[in-house]
Write a structure and sequence with these properties.
Chain lengths: ~400, ~850
């Protein structure tokens, strides 16, 4: 059903869209009209319209379309996932959306206020976020064990996809500096965004996005929206925060827990809660996989369990159509025009997988050292690298989670 | 009127063997035996009487046994057996004479001998203290010309050949490290000793001459990773390659620059392909999209000739030797079984092997000319030899006959044709009437035979206007009220409906229910009281034997009125009593107390609360936004538990007193038992009644009562039964296209599983209001004209909820905006000058 709804809708006719830029702005506008706001993540991704399209489609599907989980659960799970990485931006974004879909405001006081079913998810959230190789059959079993608060397999798969999606999105948010974006404002009735008037868009004035109608909107936000499709602007912005990002990036890779001293306290709306409320065991963080290798944790061989051969089939079976959407995302990111050698692309992808303990038999990891030292600066600069990191991470988490589910199903 | 149609069809039959004891099939005194006619490709069914069939039967059976002996390579004398491997297998292959099998995987590379009693380990090819990744095999193939030659595809991208004739322990012969990524497949040429082909994740295929150190040619698919390569068995120079992006390419080994032909075979990766051993142009492919397709390449355009839909992604496909239409498949995920399909019958596997506990990774027919042995390796670290005679046959468990009622009472019946032959007055189905589908039924024999190849379909038409008609059902469904009014009114209404439709039993049931479950007179319930006075509600209150008998006898209204009057006076008395309660006898008081203490028995407070929701107005006709309720997780609707009434002081008094007075009333009617039976008292009998109705086939009654009674009965009946009833009723309603009623039932149901139905498939397809083209995208902006569809004429924002529009000028917008606008102005908000009206 959902497939037919928007499965083939993505082909924009070349006559109507004569440049990538138009395409991007159209996408942004659509997102704007659809959700009533255009978050900065989408703005950043707008430099790669094709990717943005599949990203938005996946996100829309897992958050709003047919699925076993109720809507407010989905947003709450997203909050839990983002909180694990102290991603204030995503936490407040989803808090707002959680309230919008009639979620109980009480839950936002913290994890202990949420129903036990969601609290049970905390463990797998924690593990997936920081040390996905610890994901085991027993976790799945514990969640599915019949009882008052048990999960169904379909629900669990959606939850896992949500978790992985949000964890990896956190990487992107930090990597691209979107975290400092203004706190999202709740939208007004009828789904129209505050401060934006769609009448211009309705009149066909699509080339330029309309100016804000009200004084409520902050100027910088508008600027970023206007120039959302301009890579140059993005680069400029990225360069500005490059140093900071670099630090964070390193942080993310090594400790995964971000100290929040550098994030200035800002006036927060009621719902933009402190992420730590949704976190238990905050000390649990990333630990280098290599160090644990001599322990009993086995290296995950992608030749034995790959997305294409195994993950796809399983996830698609338990949560229909999501496999195709994720597949498209992975394909899109793989086919992004990459200014440097494809080797670098592969090195980044494999390196991210490597730090999560996933190894490729057919890859010489010496290549990583050779390429990444030279390419590390580029690595941080461009958005598409961030995309690459995000997708690699998403796939890594999914692989671990799905393998655990497979093991559960076999047993 | 009765009309009967039958049809029969012959299908090609490829098999030549049958077991004699199955061939005699006596049905209704006749012998039905399949025999082969001159061209041996057709099976006809011969029907003779018992007396003269034996001679011919015997003749054909002997003939057949003779042929069977001739076609068999070896006698079937093995057995289903297995052995444990040390590690999961990725692929297996047999040598030509079918005496040895090689198993390869990440941590295993061994040769096993196939003996009668079991597998015997012959050789371990993983040598060295710390085996390199070259030993980690994704695929293995044993050369079909040279029994000492093996090739493996390594996960690290190496292609390795092994020579078993080498005298040292390390049998490795050649190592090609030309591929950059994992090699997914290696394939020897079927007739050329030194030619080896490989397909890799890097998108290249390479052809090696084993006499040289390097590849002789490289083929670039220009698509994604190569998943399988297979030399054609009949065409010396041709090979097929399947790709991760769904393509299949045909190559000429002499022309590495360009493929000969290419076509898209599957959506998503094509994991495997296999050439038909006999039919030159046939290629079977299996993909992640769970399909097996058979392609005919012999024509100019590649044509899909068969398609089998499996339940999981297809990892391997192998044609069955000596059986033209059979192939075996196994899956990569979730499903651990091996299936053998007859491609002409794609909906049910011909045979299934269910031994493995994890996914099967390699399948191979033991001998190229023997269809009875299948070898398989699996991730569960076992190696199996499957015997065909031990396979399970899903067809045996399938239902051989079909029976179905049509909407208008027609009855269709499909069965083996042989079963129908005894019928008299049967005339052959002309094949012209499209109203009825024809079912072909091929009933397989336990052996390879499809003895029975066709089914007959008979349709019995019902006479027009007969009692089979379901008018009563439709009318009842439309007229019943299930919610929106107080309980008693609902019952009353439904009773009337049933009565009007000439269904006295149902009518009486409703009346009885009303009496049983209506709460007794209760002065503290002002609403009820008022209703009584105004006379809107003929009978609401206490349960009394007199009323019951009145209902049962269907007395006229005067009687009831009388009753009501007396009741009201009694109520008035009650009030007086209340005022002068001090002067009343102690006994009454005690009684009241006792009644109150017994919470379970009777609780006015609870009834009061249960009644309350029914007075709510029905939901607004146009809720602005569809509420999404998460029924599965939400517990129960907010309601006090009956066990926890808390009664305020003043109410307590009246509650205590009322029953006393009623007793007085009833004593006049000469009751033998206490009239204040709690509603719970009736639950068992009501439950029984509901089950009775459901069993009688009147699930409508069961569900309607269930809904109207709501909490009064819901807890008495187990959830599963309720769900079953709801499902049946909803199904019926939908068959009669009573969508509104079915939706109401879904909405009013209390089963989680039922309420979910409303949330599934809620997609609505719309057209753009500007360019009138379908809105293919999920958003609110049309892809084609780049305009916002459905913009509100008042606020110029996109309308996401209800859109109301003027039928005169077709402008409109948000419901409330348009309403507001038209309060102030007569003209259309769009400025078109039309005088719109909102009513």
């Amino acid at each position: 059903m959902a497939q037919s709804c928007f499965g083939h809708g993505s082909q924009l006719s070349p006559v109507m869209v004569n440049s990538e830029k138009d395409r991007a702005s159209l996408l942004c506008m659509k997102a704007l009209a659809n959700r009533g706001r255009l978050d900065s993540v989408s703005q950043q991704m707008a430099s790669h319209p094709q990717y943005l399209e599949s990203f938005l489609r996946t996100q829309h599907y897992i958050l709003y379309m047919d699925g076993p989980l109720p809507l407010h659960y989905r947003h709450y799970i997203a909050i839990m996932a983002a909180a694990r990485h102290h991603c204030r931006y995503l936490v407040s974004l989803h808090s707002a959306q959680f309230l919008r879909v009639d979620g109980d405001p009480l839950w936002l006081q913290g994890l202990e206020a949420a129903p036990p079913r969601l609290r049970h998810l905390d463990h797998i959230n924690k593990v997936l976020a920081h040390q996905p190789w610890l994901t085991a059959r027993s976790h799945i079993q514990a969640l599915l064990k019949t009882g008052e608060q048990c999960w169904s397999l379909a629900e669990l798969v959606q939850a896992v996809v949500l978790l992985a999606h949000c964890h990896s999105l956190c990487s992107f948010v930090f990597g691209s500096g979107s975290d400092s974006d203004s706190i999202p404002t709740p939208r007004v009735h009828h789904g129209t965004p505050p401060g934006y008037c769609l009448c211009d868009a309705a009149n066909g004035n699509t080339a330029l996005l309309p100016p804000p109608a009200g004084p409520t909107e902050k100027a910088p936000r508008r600027r970023s929206l206007d120039s959302s499709c301009e890579v140059a602007y993005l680069r400029e912005q990225i360069q500005k925060s490059q140093e900071e990002i670099k630090e964070r990036k390193a942080d993310r890779l090594h400790s995964q827990t971000l100290s929040h001293a550098d994030v200035e306290e800002e006036d927060e709306a009621m719902f933009s809660a402190d992420p730590s409320r949704f976190v238990t065991d905050p000390e649990f963080g990333y630990q280098e996989f290599a160090r644990r290798e001599e322990d009993h944790f086995q290296v995950f061989r992608v030749q034995d369990y790959s997305w294409e051969d195994h993950g796809f089939s399983l996830v698609n079976r338990l949560y229909s159509d999501i496999g195709h959407l994720l597949d498209e995302r992975f394909r899109n990111v793989a086919s992004l025009p990459f200014p440097h050698s494809p080797d670098l692309k592969r090195a980044i992808w494999n390196y991210i997988h490597c730090i999560y303990g996933i190894r490729y038999d057919d890859y010489d990891y010496g290549e990583v050292n050779r390429l990444l030292e030279r390419g590390l600066k580029l690595y941080i600069k461009a958005v598409h690298v961030n995309l690459l990191v995000m997708e690699a991470r998403l796939q890594a988490e999914l692989l671990y989670a799905l393998r655990a589910i497979t093991q559960y199903m076999i047993a | 009127m009765r009309r009967e149609v039958t049809s029969a069809a012959n299908v090609n039959n490829d098999s030549t063997s049958a077991s004699p004891e199955r061939a005699h099939l006596f049905i209704k005194g006749q012998c039905v035996i399949p025999y082969e006619d001159v061209n041996r490709d057709r099976v006809n069914v011969c029907v003779t009487s018992r007396t003269d069939c034996h001679a011919r039967c015997n003749f054909y059976l002997e003939l057949r046994l003779e042929m069977e002996k001739m076609t068999r390579v070896s006698t079937v004398n093995g057995r289903t057996m297995f052995c444990h491997l040390d590690a999961p297998a990725n692929a297996i292959s047999v040598c030509r004479d079918a005496t040895q099998v090689v198993v390869a995987g990440r941590n295993i590379f061994k040769i096993y001998g196939l003996e009668e009693e079991g597998f015997v380990e012959r050789l371990n090819l993983r040598v060295g203290r710390k085996p390199s990744l070259n030993f980690s095999c994704a695929d293995v193939m044993w050369h079909q010309m040279d029994e000492n030659l093996l090739a493996t595809a390594a996960t690290n991208g190496a292609v390795v050949t092994w020579n078993l004739a080498r005298s040292c322990r390390n049998k490795q012969e050649q190592l090609f490290t030309e591929h950059k990524r994992t090699v997914n497949k290696v394939c020897f040429h079927p007739t050329e000793v030194n030619m080896l082909l490989s397909g890799s994740q890097d998108g290249f295929m390479k052809c090696f001459d084993l006499r040289k150190k390097e590849s002789v040619s490289t083929f670039s698919g220009q698509s994604e990773s190569v998943r399988d390569v297979q030399f054609s068995i009949k065409d010396y120079f041709t090979f097929a390659a399947s790709f991760e992006n769904g393509n299949v390419q045909l190559w000429d080994i002499r022309r590495p620059d360009r493929y000969e032909r290419m076509f898209t075979a599957h959506t998503g990766p094509v994991f495997c392909c296999d050439w038909h051993p006999e039919d030159r142009g046939w290629l079977a492919t299996g993909g992640r999209d769970k399909m097996v397709k058979v392609w005919d390449m012999s024509t100019n355009r590649v044509k899909e000739i068969y398609c089998v839909q499996t339940i999981a992604s297809v990892a391997r496909v192998k044609w069955r030797p000596e059986r033209r239409y059979h192939l075996a498949t196994c899956s990569m995920m979730v499903d651990h079984n091996i299936y053998v399909w007859d491609v002409r019958r794609p909906f049910i596997p011909f045979a299934t092997f269910e031994e493995h506990k994890d996914v099967t990774t390699g399948i191979v027919w033991r001998n190229q000319h023997d269809p009875y042995y299948l070898l398989s390796g699996s991730k569960d670290s076992t190696l199996y030899q499957h015997m065909f005679k031990d396979a399970s046959r899903p067809v045996d468990r399938a239902n051989p006959e079909g029976l179905c009622f049509g909407l208008f009472g027609d009855l269709a019946f499909a069965a083996k044709e042989s079963l129908m032959t005894g019928d008299v007055g049967r005339k052959t189905y002309p094949g012209g009437d499209r109203r009825y589908p024809i079912f072909f039924f091929k009933k397989p024999d336990v052996t390879e035979q499809f003895a029975q190849v066709s089914s007959a379909l008979s349709v019995f038409e019902s006479e027009a206007g007969s009692s089979v008609g379901m008018d009563w059902f439709i009318n009842t469904a439309k007229s019943y009220l299930l919610s929106g009014k107080p309980f008693a009114e609902l019952c009353e209404h439904n009773a009337q409906v049933a009565k009007k439709l000439n269904r006295p039993q149902e009518s009486t049931t409703w009346t009885m229910l009303r009496i049983m479950f209506s709460e007794p007179a209760n002065p503290s319930l002002s609403t009820n009281h008022n209703l009584n006075k105004s006379g809107n509600l003929p009978l609401v209150n206490s349960f009394s034997m007199k009323e019951m008998s009145a209902a049962l006898n269907e007395r006229n209204k005067e009687n009831r009125q009388d009753n009501l009057h007396s009741l009201e006076t009694n109520l008035n008395n009650n009030d007086e009593n209340e005022e002068t309660e001090g002067s009343e006898g102690q006994a009454e008081y005690l009684f009241g107390d006792a009644e109150l203490d017994d919470d379970d028995l009777y609780s006015m407070e609870h009834d009061n609360q249960a009644e309350e929701p029914e007075y709510l107005l029905p939901q607004e006709a146009f809720p602005l936004r569809h509420e999404i309720m998460d029924h599965p997780s939400a517990p129960e609707p907010v309601q006090e538990k009956p066990e926890s009434p808390h009664v305020s002081g003043s109410e307590t008094e009246s509650t205590c007193l009322t029953p006393m007075e009623s007793i007085n009333l009833i004593s006049v009617s000469q009751l033998l038992f206490s009239p204040h039976l709690p509603p719970k008292f009736f639950c068992p009998i009501v439950k029984e009644m509901l089950c009775y109705y459901a069993e009688q086939g009147d699930v409508q009654m069961a569900v309607s009562v269930l809904i109207v009674l709501g909490d009064r009965i819901r807890k008495e009946i187990d959830e599963l039964t309720q769900e079953h009833w709801y499902m049946s009723y909803i199904d019926l309603l939908q068959r009669f296209e009573l969508w509104n009623v079915s939706n109401e039932v879904i909405k009013l149901s209390t089963c989680g599983a039922i309420m979910c139905l409303n949330q599934a498939s809620t997609t609505l397809h719309i057209n753009c209001s500007n360019c009138k083209r379908p809105m293919s995208n999920k958003g609110w902006i049309c892809d084609r004209c780049h305009q916002c569809a459905s913009v509100c004429a008042v606020c110029h924002h996109v309308v996401k909820g209800l859109f109301v529009w003027c039928q005169g000028c077709s402008h409109g917008g948000h419901l409330e905006h348009v309403m507001e606008w038209l309060k102030q102005s007569k003209h259309c908000p769009a400025g078109c000058g039309h005088l719109c009206e909102y009513t």
